[in-house]
Amino acid sequence: MNSLEDYSDIALTPAQLKGRFPAAPPEAFTDSLAPRTLLSILADGEKHQARQIIAILGDSLRWPLQSLMGKPYHWNILNHSEKGSRGVYQLDPRHFSGDPIDDAQARRERRQVLANKSFKQALRESKRIRKAAAEVRRANEEQLDLFIKNTVDSVAGFSVRATEVESSVIDALSFSVAGGEQ
Question: Smallest Cα–Cα separation from 37: which of 110, 60, 27?
């Protein structure tokens, strides 16, 4: 497998990428090698098969894709793959237009997709609150029941041991009072 450093010459510098995408805001460019290499690959405007990109990156697309598509970069990377097949990625053509409004619109759409995903995830998670609270309550009750049982058993065991010790002490005292004879 190829290491990412083997392909560092493929990655354009942030300055070169800025020249390629003059309408992009300054915060749209990263110094991180894997995302920058992916952006450099997609900078030709063509569609690229995931397997071809992975052959260059030498690992996985997930982190570089998430990095470029997330905050603060918000590159709108389109996936043209058929359902159930590997990705076919292309940078949104509006990033190439040179028009700051087109580029900003592509980034706004990406932010909107992220906001919708975040909202849906928050809703799913909020629906679990009641169930999770019940699970915590049940676990706490089980812990308390176990503590009480262990305490009662311990006290009961102590009482049995105390009675045994008490009997032994009485027997010993009786023995010594009787002059060593019982």
Answer: 60
| Residue 162 binned pLDDT confidence (cut-offs 50, 70, 90) | low
In the chain, domain spans: 4-99
Contacts of 3 (CB under 8 A, 6+ apart): 58
Instruction: Quick: pLDDT tens for 22-42.
Output: 999 999 999 999 999 999 999
Q: Cα–Cα distance between 39 and 33 in angstroms, integer?
A: 10
Nearest to 48 by CA among 33, 29, 24, 64: 64
Q: Report pTM.
A: 0.66
b/e per residue 153-178 (b: at least 16 CB within 10 A): eeeeeeeeeeeeeeeeeeeeeeeeee
- For 4-99, give the CATH class: mainly alpha
